[in-house]
Specification:
The protein has 383 residues and is α+β, with helices and mostly antiparallel strands. It has helices at 13-24, 36-44, 92-106, 123-130, 176-186, 221-231, 285-294, 309-316, 361-375, 378-382; strands at 3-7, 48-55, 61-70, 75-83, 112-118, 134-145, 147-157, 170-172, 194-196, 216-218, 247-250, 257-263, 268-275, 299-305, 321-332, 335-345. The protein has 10 helices and 16 strands.
Length: 383
């Protein structure tokens, strides 16, 4: 297919909205494909790279791809990849993906770009893999698109980044299948990580409190962000690239404040940070799941350093499942640190609806192993 690829312009907004509607109908959960105000902001944002594809001769807008970046964390996210249904099978999705990622990396300010890819078919997975993305994991029930869907997590790294990873010597034993899958699927070494079954501390003041009966939701985004910055003035305490909290969950006694990016349209919730410490929320994860479910989200994920054995263990003990490992995600000085995505879903997972390509199969097996170890009685697993 012969197409001209160029930066998106404000005058493209109406055609872009029509393109996303033609591709996704009313089910696209990202506002960059439907909200003109968000689209205007992103097109004019110097930290966002948005490319369009138009057929030569007719000028018909047939494709779009975006990389949003977080300059402070040196990370980008590939979003909004769309090719008109009548113009597929010509390689345009791959051309757009390669072009927008090359543009984003060209300035030398990014260590990696990640993508969450729908798994309805293997095609989108193959597009990113052919453009240098490595599979990082599987996120079951992570998004509401055309029904509840699972996503694959992939990332493309700048040259030399993976050579500067911090060595982690021990991690919870429950991460073993995930780390083995990562090494098999990407070649990124994790074999030196030894299992550690040391229980995570409940907190600095002693054992965890009994389960909280209910949580209150404060969903005033401006107030939430101001309060979040007051409690976490150090960027190290609020590391969750390309996410900002729009709600805070608190028990009636105010024992903790859980800051979340709650997206009822996508049916998902990112647990960004907890005050006063991450494990303070683990005794209340059942009411937390019930609260976010009532708010429209059936999937919760959180992001923790691979080196933080205590916090990882605390969340694993409360039903979170290791879903993905992101090597060299965070740069501190000249060293890059690995992170783990942990997730929980309140819906039944139906793997019959997932098209798992070869590079993701080790992660599917690892997730099933971890899920079974978490939720099935030991005698059933043994059988």
């Amino acid at each position: 297919m012969t197409a001209a690829i160029a930066p998106a312009a404000l005058q493209d907004i109406a055609e872009l909205r029509q393109l996303y509607f033609d591709v996704y109908g009313h089910g696209y959960p990202v506002p960059l494909g439907s909200d003109p105000a968000v689209m205007r902001r992103l097109i004019t944002d110097p930290h966002t790279h948005w490319l369009t594809a138009r057929l030569l001769g007719t000028g018909e807008l047939t494709g779009s791809a975006v990389v949003q970046t977080d300059p402070g964390s040196r990370i980008g996210k590939l979003v909004g990849l769309a090719v008109h249904p009548d113009r597929r099978r010509g390689g345009l999705a791959g051309q757009l993906t390669g072009a927008v990622c090359d543009t984003a990396f060209a300035a030398g300010r990014l260590d990696s770009v990640y993508a969450t890819v729908r798994m309805v078919t293997e095609g989108p997975q193959q597009v990113v893999v052919r453009n240098g993305f490595r599979p990082l994991g599987l996120l079951p029930n992570a998004a509401e698109v055309a029904g509840c869907e699972s996503l694959g997590l992939f990332a493309r790294f700048a040259d030399g980044v993976l050579a500067h990873r911090e060595r982690v010597s021990r991690a919870p034993a429950a991460l073993g299948p995930l780390l083995a899958a990562a090494e098999t699927s990407t070649g990124v070494p994790h074999g030196s990580v030894l299992p550690s079954d040391t229980p995570g501390p409940a907190g600095p003041d002693g054992p965890a409190q009994p389960p909280t009966a209910e949580l209150e939701v404060v969903s005033a985004p401006g107030f939430v962000r101001r309060r979040f910055l007051e409690l976490f003035p150090d960027p190290a305490g609020r590391y969750y690239p390309l996410h900002a909290p729009n709600a805070v969950l608190v028990p009636p006694d105010g024992a903790f404040e859980a800051y979340v990016d709650l997206d009822p349209v996508a049916g998902s919730c990112a647990l960004i940070a907890v005050h006063p410490y991450p494990a303070a929320v683990t005794h209340a994860l059942e009411p937390l799941m019930a609260t976010v479910s009532r708010s429209g989200a059936d999937y919760v994920e959180t992001l923790l350093p691979l080196s933080d054995t205590a916090s990882l263990t605390a969340f694993l003990d409360q039903g979170f499942v290791p879903s993905a490992v992101y090597p060299a995600m965070r740069r501190i000085g000249e060293t890059l640190h690995d992170y783990v995505v942990l997730s929980r879903t309140s819906r039944q997972i139906d793997f019959r609806t997932i098209a798992v390509s070869g590079p993701l199969r080790p992660y599917a097996n690892a997730y099933l192993t971890a899920w079974a170890a978490t939720y099935l009685p030991r005698h059933e697993v043994a059988l």
